[in-house]
Predict the structure.
Amino acid sequence: MKTKKTLFIVLGIVLLVLAGFIYFRFYFVLGEGVKAGELNYVVKKGYLFKTYEGKLIQTGLRSKQTGNIQSNEFEFSVENAAIAEKMMLNSGKVFELRYKEYMGALPWRGYSNYVVYEIISIQ
């Protein structure tokens, strides 16, 4: 009788730790912010879950290695279809986008850890 009770307690603790890990890894918002730049593309893609993925080219240049020049690129996912459609219709324009950053990506949320949830402005 005592071993069943111990087994249930251990199993409960393991499930709580697992639930906490999953929440922290995939649902906890690590950061929020705003990015601005020229919208390069937004596409709907995926094998099982069709998600909207995009890329924003930010102004300025950066270099990972000496002598190389590379533009700042912000790759993101979009959960809201209406926002993604609005972005598709205005590709090539300068956007200010509000996003959330997660520790891990979920297949139904998109390929990126960055998820855009609002368009602040389009120029």
The CA atoms of residues 14 and 94 lie 48 Å apart. DSSP finds two helices and five strands in the chain.
